Amino acid sequence: MTHSDPLLVVDTTPYTRDDIDRAVEVLCRHPAIVAPQGRRLAVCLKDSFQWLALCLHLKAQGGSVLPIHPSTPLDAARELALETGCHHLLHGDGSHLEALNPLPEQQAAEPAPGGELIQLSSGTTGRPKTIVRPWTAIDRELESYLAALPEAEGLTPIIACPVTHSYGLICGVLAGLCRSQGRGVVPRVVTNLNPRYILGTLRDHPRHLLYAAPTLVSLLVRLLPQEQGFHTVMLSGATLPAPLLETLGARAQRVCQQYGCSEAGCIAIAARADSPGLMGRPLPHLRVSAGHSAEAPEEIRVTVVEEGGRIVATRDLGYLDESGQLHFLARLDDTINVAGINVYPGGVEDVFLRHPRIEEAVAFKRPDPYAGERVCLQFVAREPLDCEALRRWCRERLAPHQVPMVLEQVEHIDKLPNGKVSRQRLARAYSDAGAESVQAEEVAP
């Protein structure tokens, strides 16, 4: 590959190594970018290519960086930068580098030699926390990730998710660049998230590997023309409901699923996902422990062998089957304990999503004086549904302890900015509102 060959494409614009060098040269008017070692730089750039060019530069130069989503307002970006102990903030078009003075309690330890990638957890179970990983750990993850998914060789990565997040940045862009060296396959970053545009991009690159959030994949499946199909789709971040995964599987040559967390990166990959909870084999640089069966699950714990045996407690419930594949059941905090019996929200939601008129469903828990906790469910339907008739319908398909105590039809289900549902936030909202003000039909335990 020469400097004039495209290295990556953002929407319809190809960029070469020379383009990257020129973009970095413009930003190098800031001394902190020329010599980034020993400093933490928060970056919130509107232009995705400009961010990726800078990221590759900082990684190569041993800089430490906190990527911030480009839609973040200046004041909010500054607050994130200060909270994570960053020394500078590059915002907007990159013309101004703001020096920051974090308070003593915000000061972090010295950056690791060789620099770090700083990330924020998704915050679905509380306030986002700061995760710091050395670039050496990212490189080890990439090496393991590439070896674990040989099926991706020769496919064009279509990255239709934020490249400021580890999923899009590490698994999409950086892994795609590693695979493309000398092979003529160029990663394509999609910032135009109009579903029709994305479907057109996939059609123009029939041998594709699509990286996208489950919510976007769900929409794309529904809009996919009959004459068009997917080649390979990678799911991450949340499991697709079983009915939707079945539909996707019928329209794609391959559906993959990966599982990970901010503290350890990608943990496991299923090269062919035929059930929502199947996450595949753990990556070879990690040791993973969990339960031994669906009937006896335990918290998924990860040991990063090459980092002194660092242990990551994921707060996820799962098990390893006889073949060594990892299965995810639910977040520990989302699991509903009804009179000593675990109820997993996804299993309840899958049943309701098979109802012909229900389009979305989310199950969450509520304290109960008799059973300890009970199941509640919000759903979106194409027309008003009779909750008592719906309850009779679900009783034929669910065990008694799985049947929702509360059924509430809503116009839309509240989601976080990243498209994920926070079941804990729904539970708190219901509790704060009080049963009297919630327009739901409730059944006695």
- Please give the CATH architecture of the largest domain: 3-Layer(aba) Sandwich
Widest beta sheet: strand line-up: 2-1-10-9-11-12-13-14-15-19-18-17-16
Number of domains: 3
How many H/I helices?
12
Beta percentage is 25-35%
Biggest beta sheet attributes? 13 strands, mixed
Kindly name the structural category.
Answer: alpha/beta
**Mean pLDDT, all residues:** 90
How far apart the termini lie comes to 67 Å
Spans of at least 5 consecutive residues whose pLDDT stays below 50 are: 435-441
How much helix, percentage-wise, in residues? 25-40%
Shape: globular
Radius of gyration: 23 Å
Assigned CATH class of the largest domain: Alpha Beta
CATH superfamily name of the largest domain?
A: ANL, N-terminal domain
What CATH calls the topology of the largest domain is Rossmann fold
Number of strands: 25
Can you walk through the features of this model?
The protein is an alpha/beta fold and 445 residues long. It folds into three domains: 6-120, Rossmann fold, CATH 3.40.50; 138-331, Rossmann fold (3-Layer(aba) Sandwich), CATH 3.40.50.12780; 336-442, ANL, C-terminal domain (GMP Synthetase, Chain A, domain 3, 2-Layer Sandwich), CATH 3.30.300.30. Helices cover 29% and strands 31% of the residues. The chain has twelve helices and 25 strands. The strands form five sheets. The chain has a 13-stranded mixed sheet with strand order 2-1-10-9-11-12-13-14-15-19-18-17-16, sandwiched between helices. It has a four-stranded mixed sheet with strand order 4-3-5-6, sandwiched between helices. Strands 22-23-24-25 form a four-stranded mixed sheet, with helices on both faces. Helix 11 links the parallel strand 23 (372-381) and strand 24 (406-409). Helix 1 (17-27) crosses helix 3 (48-61) and helix 7 (195-204) crosses helix 8 (214-223). The longest helix has 15 residues, at 166-180. The radius of gyration is 23 Å and the shape is globular. The N and C termini lie far apart (67 Å). Residues 435-441 have low confidence and may be disordered.
